[in-house]
Amino acid sequence: MSQPKLTSLFRIQTLLMLHPKHSKSGYDLAKELEQLTGKKPSSGKIYPFLHELKDTGYIIEKETGDSGGRSKFEYFLTEKGVELKEELAERMANLLQIRLDQKLDKCHHCGVKLYDSIVEGKDKSGSPVVFCCKHCQAAYFDK
Ligand SMILES: [Zn+2]
Fold this sequence. Notes:
Elements: H1 9-17, E1 24-25, H2 26-37, H3 43-55, E2 59-67, E3 70-77, H4 79-103, E4 119-122, E5 128-131, H5 134-142
Antiparallel strand pairs: 1-3, 2-3, 4-5
């Protein structure tokens, strides 16, 4: 096994939550995932993935004492894990950027993407459209 399969959002989110300096337990990760998604992943889902990451060299397991007779483990990213996380974060950011671009309105006159300032107006047939600024709105009607 060279690289863990990152085929689900659960796996991607879990990996993005891991850190090279601050170790986290499976329980910490489950709690964070619950806060993020509103759904607590089962330990039958978390631990097999953590073991997969460990076996492929992306995280290190550290024993941090025991709770009630059971060994407690925490996990942190290796250098290889950090690289994968950065690659993944980049990929996610690109995906979000694409989604964002698709959702953004464009100025009806100049075509610039509208991130915040929007002038609402109507086109020549009276349908609602948006402009980036008053000047574009005026220029559109001047034509
Ligand atoms: Zn414009």
